[in-house]
Specification:
mainly alpha; 12 helices; 0% strand
């Protein structure tokens, strides 16, 4: 009977400090998964209101492709291609929180930087695509005059800064630009003699070459391949979503172009088209919960590098497609 207390006394008692140390350690172990779980829940709830992944073509483009085919008239094809290029900008303007880059600092939407950078990529790509469209496809020859609606849209309204809130606002300028594009498309379909669309085989090649040029896709690629030590951690996600905005515009335009001109695929580009569009879908649905910057042999993901690999693959496939047209 006397041995039991003696045995218990041999077991060291945990001090008050030890108990607190264990509690702090347990809290430290649990706080990260709980915090990540809470963040994931809030973020997923937010994306129900404002989607951040776009794995499929926009319904407006799907309807456009059903209505316009390779047998359509040149004017119908031109109107469809113009509508495809402007589609993404229009979707951003009509999205849940609208054009948020220029929201006032007191507005919660001002801090949604992922969507803001996607919108920056969207307006950049829209400008670039309509620059080529207006100067090459909407007139018969290089020396001919540009269409009055297109030149005003691209030089006055789409060239407007993306972050001005008032007097005038960015939204008002972009809406005016979109309205001018629709006027061009309407006159094209009505057969107005001064409103034309003229896409030749050399234009097909030139358009693809322009897309992969230094002025266009090389610009976001440079932001993605820059050395990690030269890029602040806070800018990693900015560059990823900026690229996503560019590819969203390009996917709409390229998908429409290939649908309207199947001879592009017939010249040996089917596999290139399939892979390019697959990688575009990957970019358009790229939305990591937390953007990481794994360097060298780090165990962490390098999300910016992964986006760069997608973009490089897209450029290479478009280049191969261009060469198949040229040969």
């Amino acid at each position: 009977m006397d041995k039991k207390p003696q045995e218990n006394s041999l077991i060291p008692k945990m001090t008050k400090f030890g108990k607190w140390a264990v509690l702090i350690l347990l809290a430290f172990i649990l706080i990260w998964p709980l915090s990540i779980g809470l963040y994931w829940t809030v973020y997923k709830a937010y994306t129900i209101l404002d989607p951040m992944r776009f794995p499929d073509l926009d319904p407006a483009i799907t309807a456009l492709l059903q209505k316009t085919t390779s047998d359509s008239t040149p004017s119908q094809k031109g109107a469809a291609l113009s509508a495809a290029i402007r589609n993404r900008l229009e979707q951003e303007m009509n999205s849940t929180f609208g054009w948020s880059i220029n929201d006032l600092i007191i507005s919660p939407t001002r801090w949604l930087d992922n969507r803001a950078n996607r919108q920056r990529g969207t307006i950049f790509a829209t400008r670039m695509m309509f620059t080529f469209f207006s100067t090459n496809l909407a007139k018969y020859g290089k020396v001919d005059k540009e269409n009055k609606y297109l030149i005003e849209a691209r030089e006055k309204h789409f060239a407007f800064t993306s972050d001005k809130w008032w007097f005038p606002s960015s939204e008002s300028q972009y809406k005016k630009g979109l309205s001018l594009l629709k006027k061009y498309e309407s006159e094209l379909l009505e057969g107005n003699a001064e409103t034309i669309f003229n896409l030749r085989t050399d234009d097909m090649y030139n358009m693809l070459a322009f897309i992969i040029s230094k002025q266009f896709l090389d610009q976001p690629l440079g932001l993605l391949v820059q050395s990690n030590e030269d890029v602040p951690y806070t800018e990693l996600d900015d560059r990823i979503y900026y690229t996503q905005g560019i590819i969203l515009v390009l996917r709409d335009a390229l998908q429409t172009f290939i649908h309207l001109y199947p001879e592009v695929a017939e010249k040996g580009g089917e596999q290139n088209i399939r892979i390019a569009l697959k990688d575009m879908n990957q970019v358009c649905s790229f939305d990591p919960l937390i953007v990481l910057r794994g360097d060298h042999d780090s165990i962490m993901a390098d999300h910016r590098g992964k986006m760069a690999r997608y973009l490089i693959a897209i450029r290479e496939r478009i280049n191969d497609l261009a060469q198949s047209i040229k040969s």
